[in-house]
Amino acid sequence: MSTENLRTGTVRPDETRDIRSRLVAENFFSMRPKPLERWVWQKGLPASAERVYWYHWDLGHRNGTWCSQVPIRIVGRDCCLDPATVTRAYQLLKSLDLIRREDPGRDPANPFQQATALTEVRVPRELLTTLGREPKRRSTASPKPVLAAKPLAQGRAEPSQVTPAIRVSREESKAIFARFSAGERTRFAEASRHRRAGMKFDADTRLSPADRAHVLDTLQSLAQARPVQTVPDRRAAPASSTPKGPRRLQALEVLRLQRSLRTLAAAAGAPAHQSQLREVMYAVEEGALTKFPVPLAINIALKKLREGTWSVPHRMPAGWGLQRAYPEQCSAAGQ
Length: 335
Prior knowledge:
Layout: H1 3-8, H2 19-26, H3 34-42, H4 47-63, E1 67-68, H5 72-79, H6 83-95, E2 99-102, E3 106-107, E4 110-114, E5 118-121, H7 125-128, E6 147-149, E7 156-157, E8 162-164, H8 170-178, H9 182-193, E9 199-200, H10 209-224, H11 251-268, H12 274-285, H13 294-307
Antiparallel strand pairs: 1-5, 2-5, 3-4, 6-8, 7-9
C-alpha cells in the first residue's frame, strides 16, 4: 500500500488482493473483547495460560455454546505446548475463575479410558463490576439515509450518485409528479413496474434537484418493497384442468347403484323400482348431493333409502332421465 493511501485510509481497487485482506476475509481469526483482554494482561498470566484460554474462547465462540471438548494432547499441539504445561495452565485458569472443567467420567466407547473433559470459558466476576463503564462499539443497525440524486449531463440520475433528500408532504409530492413531462411520466411508470431504482430525466426538465431527489427516493422505496403474495385458499377445491360441466355417473357406477337398489329391495321384500334409480341419479348428478364425491353421495342416498327417510329430490323434472340410455346386464357373446 502506498504512503498516501496509508495517510488517507483509502485502498485502490488493485490493492484488494492484499494477502492481509485475504487472510481476514477467508481464514478464521479470533475475536478478543478488549475489556477481557486488558483484564488478562493486568493479571500477568503466563503466555502458555493465555494461549490455552484464548484457544478455548475461540472454539466456544465458534460453537455458539462457549464450551469445547478437546483432548489435552490436541490443545498442546495446537498451542505449541507440552501436555504438562497445558495441565498447569488449566489449574491456573480455574483458580482465576476463567474456565470451568467438567469431568464426564469414563469413555462410553472405551470403559478403560477417561473421557475428554468439557471446558467452558467464563468471564471473571471481578470484571463484571466494571464492564458497564467500558466503551461500546457503534451499533451496526444504523438507519439508511434517504437518497437524492445529482443530475448528470444527459439528465440521468442513478441511485449510486445521490445525496440526502428532503421529506415532502403528500400535496407537494403530487405537485412534483404533476410537473412530469410525457416522456418522464412514461419512464417513471416503466421504472416502477420493473422495480428499478433510477430513471432518466429530460435535459430541460421542469423538476428541481430536490424534486428529482424525491422522485428517485420514491423509486427506491418501490424497488425495495416486498411484492405482495396472495395466499391461496386451501379450503377451496383445486381447479380442474378440464372444463367443468354437469356431473354424470359412469356406466359402472350406475350398475353398482342398480345392484345396491336390488339388494335393498330384496331385503325389504319389495320389487326394485326404476324410479328410485332415476331419483338417486338426479340427486347425485344435479341435486342436493352434488356437493359430495360420487361414492359418498351414493352411500348417503342408499342410507336414506335403507332408513326409509328418502324423498323425491326437490325440483326434479317429471320426465328426467327418460331419454338417457341406461346400461343393461351384459350377456355372453353369441347369445
